[in-house]
């Protein structure tokens, strides 16, 4: 297994508020990592910084294979916590449009969109307007959009927190499938989701990583109930 991404001494301060404090970690290719912590712990700030949407106050984010002038966004797919969809578009139109924004030709984007609609399980609704989609379908479409350009790393910010139980199950099942093919980093404040899907957890509190490791490693250190109490 090779190192995909190295984060060194990353900090992010908003005005005078330190949201992320000097964190360092490495991601191995092919792993699924959960960033878990309560509201305000800094999860979104970390994801947005890794995605190149926020400039770090200090520290570095480096992809192992990235060349000097490479655009970070080529390597990363990012689904924000509150994605924006154009509800008047069909799922197919939205993905073709998104693919072209990601510098695919219209033909390439169309082919990739067809494949992805099958992969995320909404091909039968591809010509329906997104406004008619359920929450789970929208989220799966958002995941398809995030990977349209075949990124090395897929980052999902609280991908299931706004969904009903059916939508939540659909998205977790899709993530189980995708993790066979790509490296995934997702944030959550629900320990059972992290436990179900991830190979490793980064436990975050007040902008700092307080623990890192697999669930079984962390279980050996803590009583599970004690971790749950801290993160619910
Ligand atoms: P949540 O689960 O509520 O989304 P989070 O773990 O994703 O929380 P962040 O959204 O990264 O946490 O926020 C970390 C801290 O930074 C919080 O105290 C938040 O109030 C603050 N913060 C986030 N965005 C901004 C901003 N644009 N300006 C000022 N402070 C911010």
Structural overview:
This protein is of the alpha/beta class and 232 residues long. It is 37% helix and 27% strand. It is built from nine helices and nine strands. The chain has helices at 43-50, 72-75, 91-101, 106-119, 135-146, 165-178, 191-197, 215-221, 224-231, and strands at residues 3-14, 17-28, 32-36, 58-63, 76-79, 153-157, 183-188, 200-205, 208-213. The strands form two sheets. The protein has a six-stranded mixed sheet, with helices on both faces. It has a three-stranded antiparallel sheet with strand order 2-1-4, with helices on one face. Strand 8 and strand 9 form a beta hairpin. It starts with a strand and ends with a helix. The model has no long low-confidence stretch (mean pLDDT 91). Bound molecules: adenosine-5'-triphosphate. Residues 14, 17, 19, 37, 39-45, 189 line the site of adenosine-5'-triphosphate. Residues 14, 17, 19, 37, 39-45, 189 line the site of adenosine-5'-triphosphate (ATP).
